[in-house]
């Protein structure tokens, strides 16, 4: 089979590899499509601590079963989405449904070979039959959408969902955050990004206002539009965006941090205290989030399809370079065998 292998910083190479053989409790899938995550791009740039060459990346994927699976009630040729974040199933976190926090968690495409290939191995427990009306193309968005669902549940665990929100970043995670919030009733959403093409997409899927992140009065524009800012979701994770989140947030607001662009924290610490801000981290998702994501996609399959652009594995190097240099309106590129 062919596999796109991360071989060195800013280098991926199409190589011939043997077809992997599943062990007990695993299945072999013929990959249909595998989305390129921002974390894969970080790996490509040498900024991911855990993605080390040589590595077959790719954790946002759909595939077809190569054999019937009686335990799951699935047949050869059935399309499935795959939950790639694997907990140990034994620790306290896994036992309480928080597999995303398992200290021994593994990710397909980082800790074990991923889906930038013709075939991939996946645990049976990670397979989800596509709900009626969900196409494999749209289902490529299930993994990122699960992050959006997880954000929404974190908010709900703290307070009723507010009607207004400020989202920093109009990449894939920003888009799924918009979708998750609007689906739950949030009606006034302001989004900021440096990419005008992506901001247009954000407007199409539900943003009330978009703000060019290069402008000097972002906080003022957001505050005028929303009147108050009870919720901020930082999908970028720069020191500057963390500082902006604190600046824009209203008294008693909730800030959700999901972006991990860098590790530096910044902002006016006195504002955290005097405004009694709540800051929550959001990391990954669990099985329930993933299933809820597929069900949400079932309601809006056409929308999710429109966010995905297919490119062949053979163009992997060009795709990564494009996403680094100028993604334009690309939200999710999915590589196909």
Overview in brief:
The protein has 337 residues and is an alpha/beta fold. Helix content is 31%, strand content 24%.
Can you tag this structure with a few keywords?
single chain; 337 residues; alpha/beta; Quinone Oxidoreductase, Chain A, domain 1; Rossmann fold; 2 domains; six-stranded parallel beta sheet; 12 helices; 31% helix; 24% strand
Write the layout of secondary structure elements.
Blueprint (H helix, E strand, L loop, with lengths): L1 E7 L2 E6 L9 E10 L2 H7 L15 E6 L13 E4 L2 E2 L5 H4 L10 E2 L11 E5 L3 E3 L6 H4 L2 H15 L7 E5 L3 H12 L4 E6 L2 H9 L4 E4 L5 H9 L4 E4 L4 H10 L5 E4 L11 H6 L3 E4 L5 H13 L1 H6 L1 E5 L3 H10 L6 E5 L1
Parallel strand pairs: 10-11, 10-13, 11-12, 13-14, 14-15, 16-17
Antiparallel strand pairs: 1-2, 3-4, 3-8, 3-17, 4-5, 5-9, 6-7
Helix pairs in contact: 4-5, 4-10
Describe the structure.
It is a single chain. The chain has 337 residues and is of the alpha/beta class. The protein has 2 domains: 170 residues, Quinone Oxidoreductase, Chain A, domain 1 (Alpha-Beta Complex), CATH 3.90.180.10; 137 residues, NAD(P)-binding Rossmann-like Domain (Rossmann fold, 3-Layer(aba) Sandwich). The protein contains 12 helices and 17 strands. The strands form 4 sheets. Strands 3, 4, 5, 8, 9, 16 and 17 form a 7-stranded mixed sheet that branches. A 6-stranded parallel sheet has the order 12-11-10-13-14-15, sandwiched between helices. A two-stranded antiparallel ribbon has the order 1-2. β13, α8 and β14 form a beta-alpha-beta unit. It is globular, with a radius of gyration of 20 Å. The chain starts with a strand and ends with a strand. The mean pLDDT is 96.
């Amino acid at each position: 089979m062919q596999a796109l292998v991360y071989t060195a910083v800013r280098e991926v190479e199409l190589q011939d590899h043997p077809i992997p053989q599943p062990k007990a409790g695993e299945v072999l899938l013929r990959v249909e499509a595998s989305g390129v995550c921002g974390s894969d791009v970080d790996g490509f740039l040498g900024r991911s601590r855990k993605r080390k060459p040589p590595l077959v990346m790719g954790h946002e994927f759909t595939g077809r079963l190569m054999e019937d699976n009686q335990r799951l009630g699935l047949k050869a040729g059935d399309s499935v989405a795959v939950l790639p974040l694997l907990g140990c199933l034994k620790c306290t976190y896994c036992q309480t449904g928080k597999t995303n926090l398992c200290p021994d968690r593994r990710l397909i495409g980082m800790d074990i070979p991923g889906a930038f290939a013709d075939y991939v191995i996946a645990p049976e427990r990670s397979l989800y039959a596509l709900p009626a009306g969900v196409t494999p193309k749209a289902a490529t968005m299930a993994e990122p959408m699960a992050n959006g669902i997880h954000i929404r549940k974190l908010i709900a665990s703290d307070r009723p969902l507010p009607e207004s929100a400020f989202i920093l970043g109009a990449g894939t995670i920003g888009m799924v955050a918009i979708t998750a919030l609007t689906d739950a009733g949030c009606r006034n959403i302001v989004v900021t990004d440096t990419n005008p093409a992506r901001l247009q997409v954000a407007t199409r899927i539900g943003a009330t206002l978009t703000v060019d992140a290069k402008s000097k009065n972002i906080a003022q524009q957001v505050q005028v539009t929303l009147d108050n800012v009870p919720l901020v979701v930082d999908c970028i994770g720069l020191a500057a965006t963390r500082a902006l989140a604190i600046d824009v947030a209203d008294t008693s607001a909730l800030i959700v941090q999901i972006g991990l662009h860098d590790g530096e924290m910044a902002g006016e610490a006195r504002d955290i205290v005097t405004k009694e801000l709540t800051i929550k981290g959001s990391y990954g998702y669990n099985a329930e989030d993933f299933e809820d994501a597929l069900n949400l996609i079932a309601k809006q399959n056409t929308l999710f399809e429109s966010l995905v652009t297919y490119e062949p594995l053979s163009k992997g190097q060009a795709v990564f370079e494009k996403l680094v240099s100028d993604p334009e309106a690309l939200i999710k590129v999915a590589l196909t065998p």
